[in-house]
Specification:
The chain is built from 16 helices and 12 strands. The longest helix is centred in the middle third of the chain and has 25 residues. It is flat and about 85 Å long.
Length: 443
């Protein structure tokens, strides 16, 4: 089957690129141009016609990439045309008339590249991350993974496990043979080394995921404390409805920000109070869940009627800032108990001390993005496979010590398999759908 799709963004543009890949790519180009195939990888200006007619669609550049020396590993072509909706639709409609041609699914070109051995699974994921990068730190992380450092590390650990697996299997296959003593010492030494390496990789404070997904900030507090107003100020737009009516915010409202190059996701949540309204109660539960999973909590309370007890007080920890809003209405000094918490007095209405709050947020951000080790994990999928591999390696060591070699070998095989699944060295069909569905169509 030959696939095609718009690879540039939708909408009016000077240039649009339509990509075609598959065994009938050459046929598509010949039918569209009524001419011979251009020289490989040479930009060639051609008139592009509707198939089976002489009606001109556009005049554009054709790039021809014969397989396997192409992005997908198959015969592939790119058509650089003018980026109007009418031109793109006409070209799509014309290609669709060619037998065995269909519109590509999201990420299908990159999926083909992976399946044809052009890239590994980590590189495929990093391409998706690069496309969706909104901040400089996200771009840098995606490029580092694309360069293959992570894949090299995981492949190296996997190869070490395969080496000791061969020794264990030799002992199983030849139980009566006396294998050299240093082989058994080597098995223990290498397995310990791999375990320490995996533990070190896992001990990264989840910085990679935080960069990729964004630093999560939850604004939480009682009703009418000014949480939505604060979100709107930080977002520099009216992201949330502001009202004097208590309980206006029922659901979680999220907005994405770029603060000093760091990706941030700020959530405005329902006001915390006792409520009999079922919808509001669900909103309050969502608010508490958001607070639980946030990297930073902004606990916003009203200066003129300080309500800081119960669950709000329990949420106050090293990953929280107490924000006392409406400070312009404060009639007296804060009590000593409140002063003991990390806090900032602000007034969103009068734009007072908001820069102090933003500075505190920036300091928290920088600390959370600092790590002493190379970032190798960027997705929960990677972490889960490493944790599984570590568990099987621990089981292997116990069984190996007990000389239960058959069961030890199985644990070692499973540990190796989980490392392989990170880079796609083993059958990973069950996870491909979830990975490539995150791509845009045309990539």
């Amino acid at each position: 089957m030959t696939i095609y799709a718009l690879s540039t963004g939708p909408g009016i543009s000077g240039i649009a690129i339509i990509r075609v890949s598959g065994e009938d790519t050459k046929k598509v180009i010949q039918l569209l141009t009524n001419s011979t195939i251009p020289e490989p990888r040479v930009a060639t200006l051609r008139k592009i016609n509707k198939i089976n007619t002489s009606e001109l669609i556009d005049e554009g550049i054709i790039l021809w990439f014969p397989g396997p020396e192409s992005y997908t590993g198959e015969d592939m072509a790119e058509l650089h045309i003018h980026g109007s909706k009418a031109v793109i639709d006409a070209l799509h409609a014309s290609i669709s008339k060619v037998e065995n041609c269909r519109l590509a699914e999201p990420g299908e070109f990159t999926k083909l590249a992976f399946q044809n051995g052009k890239i590994n699974l980590l590189k495929a994921e990093s391409i998706a991350d690069l496309i969706s990068a909104e901040t400089e730190i996200q771009r840098q992380q995606a490029i580092k993974i694309m360069n293959g450092k992570s894949a090299d590390k995981f492949n190296s650990l996997r190869e070490k496990l395969l080496k000791i697996l061969s020794h264990v299997e030799a002992k199983i296959d030849f139980p009566d043979e006396d294998l050299p003593e240093d082989i058994f010492k080597n098995i223990k030494k290498i397995s310990n080394e791999v375990i320490l390496n995996i533990k070190k990789i896992l001990d990264d404070q989840k910085v990679g995921e935080r960069i990729r997904e964004g630093f999560k900030i939850a604004i939480i507090g009682p009703t009418n404390a000014g949480k939505s107003s604060l979100l709107n100020h930080l977002s520099n737009r009216d992201a949330a409805i502001v009202s004097e009516i208590a309980g206006t915010t029922r659901d979680v409202i999220e907005t994405h920000l770029n603060i000093d190059g760091y990706p941030v996701v700020i959530s405005d949540t329902a006001g915390i109070r006792d409520s009999k309204n079922e919808i509001e109660k669900k909103g309050i539960k969502l608010a508490l869940d958001k607070a639980e999973n946030a990297d930073l909590k902004l606990i916003v309370i009203d200066a003129k009627s300080i309500d800081f007890k119960g669950v709000l007080k329990e949420l106050m920890d090293e990953n929280a800032i107490l924000v006392i809003n409406k400070s312009d209405l404060l009639k007296e000094d804060l009590n000593s108990e409140i002063k003991n918490y990390e806090h900032v007095l602000i007034s969103v209405k009068n734009n007072l001390n908001l820069e102090d709050l933003i500075l505190k947020i920036k300091n928290k951000l920088k600390n959370k993005f600092i790590t002493s080790v190379d970032i190798l994990i960027t997705r929960e999928r990677h972490r889960q496979h490493l944790e599984q591999s570590l568990n099987y390696l621990k089981n292997f060591e116990e069984k190996n010590e007990a000389e239960d070699f058959d069961k030890a070998a199985e644990d070692l095989r499973l540990a190796t398999r989980h490392l392989g699944m990170i880079v796609g060295k083993v059958d990973v069909e069950e996870i491909l759908g979830s990975i490539f569905n995150d791509f845009c169509i045309g990539k």
